[in-house]
Each structure stands twice: as structure tokens, then as C-alpha cells.
From TrEMBL:
Protein family: Belongs to the LysR transcriptional regulatory family.
Keywords for the protein's UniProt record, in alphabetical order: DNA-binding, Transcription, Transcription regulation
Coiled coil: none
Protein name: LysR family transcriptional regulator
PROSITE patterns found in the cross-reference section: HTH_LYSR
One GO MF term attached to the UniProt entry: DNA binding
HTH lysR-type domain sequence ranges: 8-65
């Protein structure tokens, strides 16, 4: 009986730490591979034992109470220790096995990683993949993510990283648009064209178009006729003849191959950021993580060619 009570307390603390990190019972449930109701019940039992409310609950989010904030840091340390124990147990196995939680952006996940995952599972059938796509910057330690694939800033110097490829940015347009309106030969000529641009969901700021001119990178903020906050929507508008837009070459490549898009100002294209895999030190010896990282390097090698 005492062991069951101790296990319930541990379960409640782990559920609380994950819900506090992610801001919802649903996200915590997915991270812990249990149901949202199980997370809610575990937290409620913990609150009943402690005699305090740990969250202020609304229909949109969970907010820590003062008592919850005091407990959170301690519970988070416990969560990290549990994960380290789990990783040590998995490292003892020589074969990749278990669930691998992978976080990345929508464009990389949809166009590069997801289509290649069946090939990875054919190589490692004992590994299942939990792929999480978001343009939100994920705290992989607090959210229990094993590997994140990011474009640009790594965000935490304590993470281990491996460069996978350069993210090359180039202007594109539909051949029909270029036939009707002409093809600019220099970035200065873009002002006379219809443009389509990305607006960042996180900040609401427009994407600044980089071009390499005279051995330096300049940036242009167009006056677009069409704005979208998802890269796929930008590409779709370009394919439909909406004008000229700048996007990653890995996004445009299938459309270029089919003749739906053509590069514009390719001589001024920029390798804007690196695409990098990052993972916590606690995952460094996990066989599934090592196998996934080696496989990722092969998947992204084509982007650097």
C-alpha cells in the first residue's frame, strides 16, 4: 500500500511538471503517452494531498499559482532525473528501440522529414516516431523532446548539435507570371512586380528577403499583394501566378521539377541559416537517437548539393 501511495505521488509530480512546462493537460498527455484525463486526475490527486491549488484553470490555458510556481522547479528536477534513468536503461540496449520524440518546424517536417520516416522505420522497426510540428520555439528539455531540427538560432548552448545542411533562400515565380510580366535581372527591379510574402506567426513581422549583392547580403521588405503566415500558402500562391516570392529551395524544389515554378534572381540566392539537429546531453548515448541522427544526416545531405 505504501508503495502504491509513493507511486501515485511520483506520477502526480511528473504529470504536474509536464503540464506546467507545456501549458495544458492535452500537451502533457501527449508528451507522457497517456490520456488528458489521466493527467488531470493525477494533478487533482496531488493537489488534494498537498491541500493547495497548483494551477489556475481557464478554458484556454493553465497558469501556475504561487504555490505551483514554488513546486514547479523541484518537480522539474525530478522529471529530468526520471528521464535520465530512462535514458540510461535504454542505453544499456545495443539496438535502437522505443519512442523517439522529434520536434521541428512545419516546412521541414512536412516536406523533408515526414516523407522519409517510413524508410527510417524499415531500418529500425522497433523505433516509433512521435513527430511534433510547430513554428513555436520548443524547449526540448522541459518538453521531453529527444531531437529537434531547427533552422537558425539553436537557442540553448547546453544542447549538443550537428549541422545537417544550409537553408538556401531564393526567389521563385510561376513561368506564366514571368512570361506575362518579365523576369527581373537584379533585386532592384523587384519593385515593379507583384510579390507574395510570409508573415511570421510568432511576431507578426514580415519576412525580410535576403540577397547576396557585391559580396554582401542586403535585405528587402517588399510591398506584397498577398501575405500568408504559412510557407506552404506562400508557395501555393506563387504556383497560381500570384507574383514573385522568396522561399527555401527545399520547399520549391518539387514545384520546380514539375515546371510549376522557376527560380528568379538565382545568382543572388543566399545560404541564410544552417539547418541543425539538437538534442540534450542525456540523450547522447541513446541508440535510437544515435541511429536517427545518422539517418538525418543522409536525408539532409541532398539539400547541400
Amino acid at each position: 500500500m505504501a508503495e502504491q501511495i509513493a507511486l501515485d505521488r511520483l506520477t502526480g509530480l511528473l504529470a504536474f511538471a509536464r503540464a506546467a512546462s507545456l501549458g495544458s493537460f492535452t500537451a502533457a498527455a501527449r508528451s507522457l503517452s497517456i490520456s488528458p484525463s489521466a493527467v488531470s486526475r493525477s494533478v487533482q490527486r496531488l493537489e488534494a494531498r498537498l491541500g493547495v491549488s497548483l494551477f489556475t484553470r481557464t478554458t484556454r490555458a493553465l497558469t501556475l499559482t504561487p504555490e505551483g510556481r514554488e513546486l514547479f522547479e523541484r518537480a522539474l528536477r525530478l522529471l529530468r532525473e526520471v528521464e535520465e534513468i530512462e535514458q540510461a536503461a535504454m542505453t544499456a540496449r545495443s539496438d535502437p528501440v522505443g519512442t523517439l520524440r522529434v520536434a521541428t518546424s512545419l516546412p521541414l517536417g512536412v516536406h523533408v522529414i515526414a516523407p522519409a520516416l517510413p524508410a527510417f522505420r524499415r531500418l529500425h522497426p522497433m523505433v516509433s516516431i512521435d513527430l511534433r510540428l510547430s513554428d513555436r520555439f520548443v524547449n526540448i528539455v522541459e518538453e521531453g523532446v529527444d531531437v529537434a531540427v531547427r533552422i537558425g538560432e539553436l537557442g540553448d548552448a547546453r544542447l549538443i548539435s550537428r549541422r545537417l545542411a544550409a537553408c538556401r533562400l531564393c526567389a521563385f515565380a510561376a513561368p506564366s507570371y514571368l512570361a506575362a510580366r518579365g523576369t527581373p535581372q537584379h533585386p532592384d527591379e523587384l519593385s515593379g512586380h507583384d510579390t507574395v510574402n510570409l508573415q511570421y506567426q510568432s511576431s507578426g513581422q514580415p519576412f525580410r528577403w535576403p540577397f547576396r549583392v557585391d559580396n554582401r547580403t542586403i535585405e528587402i521588405v517588399p510591398q506584397p499583394g498577398i501575405v500568408a503566415d504559412v510557407s506552404d500558402a506562400v508557395v501555393a500562391a506563387l504556383v497560381a501566378g500570384g507574383g514573385i516570392g522568396v522561399t527555401a529551395t527545399f520547399l520549391a524544389a518539387p514545384f520546380v521539377a514539375r515546371g510549376d515554378l522557376a527560380p528568379v534572381l538565382a545568382d543572388y540566392a543566399v545560404d541564410h541559416h544552417d539547418i541543425t539537429a539538437v538534442w540534450p546531453e542525456s540523450r547522447a548515448t541513446n541508440p535510437a537517437v544515435r541511429a536517427f541522427l545518422d539517418w538525418l544526416a543522409g536525408v539532409f545531405s541532398d539539400l547541400d548539393r
